[in-house]
Amino acid sequence: MSSELTGKIAIVTGGATGIGRATVEHFVREGARVVIADVNRDEGKALADSLDASAVFRETDVSDIGEVRALVDFAVQTFGGLDVLVNNAGISGPIYASFLDDDLEAFDKIFAINLRAVMVGTQAAAKYMAENGGGAIINTSSIGGIMAGRGVITYRASKAAVIHFTKSAAIDLGVHGIRVNCLAPGSIPTTLLESSTTELEGEERDAMISSVRSTQSKKRPLNREGTVDDAAEAAVYLASDRARYVTGAVLRVDGGTAAGSTMTT
Ligand code: NAD
């Protein structure tokens, strides 16, 4: 039996579906106990129930500062400590046909979930970890935070900010034995992309989805789409003691997409 995370206590935000769900499953398989934090109560609770005593669900809206802070207290009270926080919850916001249609309401929501929650969660967890032997924090950025491109401009900006926040937090928190790293997945089929195209309809929507997917796949040196397990296994590494000397890093899990162009000219 593998045991990369035996004895560790973790929180995974956005753990009910997609990459977060796979992360919860891999963490439990590796011996961790996990608090699943999500707004999706049905899927989050069902996942926790399927994992018996190794996981509990805590309904949490990470855009609510008080709920994020209470989440850390909940993990400590429930499992007796906190070793790992995965700030995974994220939204891409609506994809518009043009940036000219973009709106500020979406901007505020995206930044509240994708960046402010990362800051609040990191600070709340670090306050506990600093007094209790350190820990590991993993913030989910995106290839969109590394590469500029058309569409989801606010999302890209929020994910770029997550990278810089992570590096700076790593420098600040290293003295307390707290490692802070970024996971930057490439395009992985989850509900994220579909849920961000609600402002488009019919052919325009289908074209946008297939355009994002095919542009990305043409650029991938490993020539296949990523999976939620690809990302989750990288999170296991960053959470584990194997990564004990790794902090302030951005681990791309993108099949090589951001390494450079696969075009010959
Ligand atoms: P997903 O939509 O399947 O999962 C996101 C989860 O976050 C959902 O369970 C959702 O309910 C939860 N969530 C959304 N808003 C929340 C809130 N306010 N409070 C708590 N939970 C909330 O999408 P995913 O692809 O698994 O995304 C996970 C992370 O990976 C996100 O941060 C996303 O930006 C990042 N990411 C995804 C991809 C991709 O291609 N799928 C690529 C790069 C980065």
TrEMBL record:
It comes from Rhodococcus artemisiae. PANTHER family: 3-OXOACYL-(ACYL-CARRIER-PROTEIN) REDUCTASE (AFU_ORTHOLOGUE AFUA_6G11210), NAD(P)-BINDING ROSSMANN-FOLD SUPERFAMILY PROTEIN. SUPFAM superfamilies: NAD(P)-binding Rossmann-fold domains. NCBIfam families: PRK07231.1. Keywords: Lipid metabolism, NAD, Oxidoreductase, Steroid metabolism. This is SDR family oxidoreductase. Residues 8-186 form the Ketoreductase domain. It comes from the Bacteria. Belongs to the short-chain dehydrogenases/reductases (SDR) family. SMART domains: PKS_KR (SM00822). Gene3D superfamilies: NAD(P)-binding Rossmann-like Domain.
